[in-house]
Structures are given as C-alpha cells and as structure tokens.
Amino acid sequence: MPTGGRPAADRRPAGRLSVPSQARGTVPPPGRRTDRERGPGHHGRVTRTEIVPTETGDARISWYPARAAQRILAVGHGAGGGIEARDLQALAAALPGQGVTVALVEQPWRVAGKKLAPAPKTLDAGWRGLWPALCEPGLPVIAGGRSAGARVACRTATELGAAAVLALSFPLHPPGRPERSRAGELLGAGVPTLVVQGGNDPFGRPEEFPERSGPGAYELVEVPYGDHGFAVPKRAPVGAEETLGTITGAVAGWARSLR
Questions:
Q1: Whole-angstrom Cα distance, residue 118 to residue 131?
Q2: How far is CA 187 from CA 140, 154, 182, 191, 203, in A?
Q3: Residue ranges for the chain with pLDDT beneath 50
C-alpha cells in the first residue's frame, strides 16, 4: 500500500510491473522490471513507479505516498505535456504531507513517446485500464487531471466509482470558440467536483463557466491572472510560488472536506 513511505504489497495482478522503494532494501521479484526509483519515501518524492498494461498500451503511475493516507489523488496530464507540469509537481510535493497519496498518471501515448494525444475515447480506455491499479491500496480515489486529463476524469468518474473529481484548467471550449462548450462533461461528472481555473485561461475563464447549483453542482477556485498552464504575467501582483500555493492550498482544503 503506497502510504506511510512504504510501497504496496508484492502481490499484484499478472502483467503489471512495479518498482519498489529503496526503503525496503529488497530486490524486485524475478520477472518484474525495475523502471526507476527516486528516494526512500520522503514526502513529495516519488518512491515507486508502475507500468500498467492497458488495451491502448502501457501506462505509467508515479506514486508519492502519504503517511497514514486517507485517500488517493490520481492526476492525469493534458494533451500538450506530461506529469512534469508545475501544478502537478506542486500537488505531488504538497499533498502527501496533508494525508493524501498522489499518483501522477502518464497515458500510454506519452509512455510510448508519441507527440500527439489520441482521440478522447482512446484516452478514456487508457484511464479505465489503469484504474484498478489506483484502487488496489483500498482507499477512496479522487480522479483528477489537467486540461484533457480533466475531461477524461469527468467522463469516467461515475462508471469507475471515483470518490470525487479534480479538474485543473478544465478546457471549457477551444480558444475563441465559446460556442463549442464542453460544459456537459463537467456537469455530468456525477461526483463532488473541484475546478481550479486560471483567471486568464483562453480555454475558459471562470466567469464563463455554467451555474454552480442544482444538478451537476461543482466548486470553482479561480487562480488570479493564471493562463491555461497557471503561468502569470510578470506585471501581475502575484508570482509563480504564490500561484502554486493557491492551487495546492485549495486542493488540500477541498480534499479534507470530502466524506
């Protein structure tokens, strides 16, 4: 179980590859490939990665464990980048200290080194295929993602039994095309949902989002001056560190409020 700085138990479904923590001082069982290790389980440092076969190819999960974890936040990347995104890395560094194990998920197309994301149905299939690995520790799992990854989390939350959804930089519409709204995906998540949105996001500014009451109600936190990647202009009265603090603080507080 990837909590308390210790990796999950060795018994895993056939075909999934796991990388144990250095803290265990053990050698991977025969036939299990070591992918990578980064440190002995301190907060904010990945201690185990898993290669998870799916019908669309191998996905990869990087675990950032919390001691006495209460829930897992699984976060997928967007179509234009990977888990190196600064908001994802900030969450992985901050939330384990708040009792939330973070799992950063790389879709098969990224693991395979491709430069273009596949169709939404293929992204959904990859997420479904790796979901059992996220649930294996036996904790409630928050399905999360940034941009295209947020859409995947919303579309699949109900069927997969996600405890909640975290939508970072939800792409409400293509830039300059508000008539092509994706609000239905957000409103159809069917579970408690938090949207964290940059105030200057060309894919949808906070004031463009639909009414947040009644069926499909969700919470929204605005990141002042932030663009789609939460970058802020040099002239803004807030800097990068304060912006990331806004994101991690909002997510940590919301996660604590979940039942």
A1: 19
A2: 21, 8, 9, 9, 17
A3: 1-34, 36-43
Instruction: Give CA–CA dist 139/3, Å, rounded.
Output: 10
Identify residue 54 by its one-letter amino acid code: T
Under 8 Å between Cβ of 129 and 75: no
Enumerate the H helices of 44-182 as residue ranges.
Answer: 86-94, 108-111, 120-135, 148-160
pTM: 0.84
Rounded CA gap, 46 and 183, in Å? 34
Structure tokens at 16: 């999934």
215-257: pLDDT as tens digits? 678 999 999 999 999 999 999 999 999 999 999 999 999 999 9
Length of the chain in terms of residues written: 259
Exposed/middle/buried for residue 107 (C-beta within 10 Å: 0-12, 13-18, 19+)? buried
